[in-house]
Structure to design on (517 residues):
């Protein structure tokens, strides 16, 4: 969102657009006459017809929503964007009350026209509420619930060993190596694919898809999302750069859906596929077809399930690991405390395993603080209200786009002292010298749309964090010419996912040889 720049040839587009905006705006204000004396949640003063289109920042709007929430003294805000009601929830309490406790009314999604243009289709994250969504969620929940992910521990531990070996061999390539780890986990689980090396073609696919996700803007937040007919127009006629970006990068999103799927399907047909989610779904589908039984999942549904595995695990895991590395450079005292504990628990000559996790609770606190300090999906994917609703005296219109602002929730000064500080001790109980603050909530979503891969993602980050701190010390890079240390600048990307922009890090070995798990 942001101010619009009309290209010279777009004048024929203006008149029907203004007419449609006027109609949607009149519909929006008609809701206010139905409020039975209740008003919409507070928000800033809007502009005629455009509403808040040019007021909401185009980049990182979660910060704006957080500050406005404080200014207006309300955890819930409302906006009108080209006649479309938008509700922003800035506290865990409001999100739980609406998205969890009244989940039946907020389980839908808007139509994500821009993301359709980018190549996302049939993916759980973006599916509208209905039988197809329930089918996809049932399948993925079965594979990724807390009890089910235990089966993936051997893969996670093996790939962590590869990550440590590669970082000790080529520390300057650490971001690529971490990308390889995250890709190996999701492709191993989803497709049974083994990543051979850091130059594997799947790594390049992941980098390209991550760029598209990280720079494609917020879902349901662009001109084409509010006016779907715009998607039928040529790019030069549309005053919205995001549509051009989506069309330019569609190949990257389709590639991560189509290429691994095609390779696995060939292996399944030949009877030599490795165990995986997609293998299971394809075999089940083929069996039903051979028996003449009805088939629930189409090929596109299976591709969509594969896309959901990627979207839920690859980029978020990699982004979280990058945030962790950044904070070890900024807070060496946290690193030293964690290493002292690890040295007491892990005997020399081996890497940490998940069996050590109960004795390494401080590592869990580091992971949780990493997720809190920089939620990788700060605004998440919006819900859509199915019916009119009333909350704390405010009216929420049917069809509202409802955002849960994870950034505001994880930096709520009423819950977290000095929320901008990275401090894992905030979760340590007061009796043990900590602050006794609650673990973060909101960064994996709410209600019937909560991320099905959250437990897998946390486990993947935990095993890497524990192993890195066990074998290396993360230090700031020093310019050999000037002797000046490089202090990383905390700056994040803007899109569906968010992560720090590139910075340098030195990994100093703490071991003489690479240990085994």
């Amino acid at each position: 969102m942001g101010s619009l720049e009309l290209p010279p040839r777009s004048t024929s587009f203006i008149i029907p657009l203004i007419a449609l905006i006027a109609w949607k705006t009149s519909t929006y204000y008609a809701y206010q006459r139905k409020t039975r004396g209740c008003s919409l949640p507070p928000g800033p003063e809007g502009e005629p017809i455009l509403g808040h289109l040019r007021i909401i920042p185009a980049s990182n709007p979660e910060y704006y929503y957080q500050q406005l929430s404080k200014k207006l003294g309300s955890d819930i805000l409302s906006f009108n964007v080209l006649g479309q009601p938008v509700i922003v929830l800035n506290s865990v309490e409001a999100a739980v009350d609406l998205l969890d406790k009244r989940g039946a009314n907020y389980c839908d999604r808007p139509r994500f026209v821009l993301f359709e243009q980018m190549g996302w289709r049939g993916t759980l994250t973006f599916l509208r509420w209905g039988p197809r969504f329930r089918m996809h969620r049932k399948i993925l929940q079965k594979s990724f619930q807390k009890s089910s992910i235990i089966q993936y521990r051997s893969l996670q531990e093996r790939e962590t060993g590869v990550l440590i070996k590669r970082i000790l061999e080529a520390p300057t390539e650490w971001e690529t190596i971490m990308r390889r780890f995250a890709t190996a986990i999701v492709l191993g689980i989803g497709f049974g694919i083994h990543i051979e090396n850091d130059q594997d073609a799947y790594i390049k696919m992941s980098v390209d898809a991550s760029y598209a996700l990280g720079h494609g803007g917020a879902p349901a937040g662009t001109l084409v999302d509010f006016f779907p007919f715009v998607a039928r127009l040529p790019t030069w006629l549309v005053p919205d750069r995001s549509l051009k970006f989506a069309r330019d990068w569609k190949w990257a999103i389709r590639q991560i859906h189509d290429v691994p799927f095609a390779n696995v399907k060939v292996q399944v047909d030949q009877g030599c596929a490795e165990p995986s989610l997609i293998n299971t779904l394809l075999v089940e589908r083929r069996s039903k077809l051979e028996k003449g039984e009805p088939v629930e999942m189409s090929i596109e549904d299976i591709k969509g399930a594969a896309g959901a595995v990627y979207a839920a695990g690859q980029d978020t895991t990699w982004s979280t690991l990058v945030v962790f590395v950044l904070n070890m450079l900024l807070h060496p005292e946290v690193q030293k405390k964690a290493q002292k504990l690890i040295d007491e628990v892990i005997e020399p000559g081996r890497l940490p395993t998940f069996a050590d996790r109960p004795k390494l609770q401080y590592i869990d606190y580091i992971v949780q603080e990493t997720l809190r300090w920089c939620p990788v999906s700060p605004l998440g994917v919006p819900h859509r209200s199915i019916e009119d609703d009333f909350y704390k005296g405010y009216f929420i219109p049917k069809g509202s786009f409802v955002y849960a602002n994870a950034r505001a929730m994880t930096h709520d000064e009423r819950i977290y002292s000095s929320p901008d500080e990275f401090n894992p001790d905030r979760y340590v109980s007061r009796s043990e010298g900590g602050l006794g603050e609650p673990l973060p909530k909101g960064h994996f979503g709410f209600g019937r749309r909560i991320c099905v891969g959250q437990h897998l993602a946390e486990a993947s980050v935990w095993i890497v964090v524990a192993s890195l701190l066990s074998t290396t010390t993360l230090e700031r890079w020093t310019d050999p010419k000037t002797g000046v240390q490089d202090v990383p600048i905390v700056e994040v990307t803007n899109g569906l996912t968010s992560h720090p922009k590139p910075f340098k890090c030195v990994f100093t070995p703490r071991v003489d040889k690479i240990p085994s798990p």
User: Anything to note?
Assistant: Strands lie at 76-81, 84-89, 383-384, 389-391, 394-396, 401-404, 472-475, 506-509. Residues 299-330 form the longest helix (32 residues). The chain has 17 helices and eight strands. Residues 83 and 507 are 52 Å apart (CA to CA).
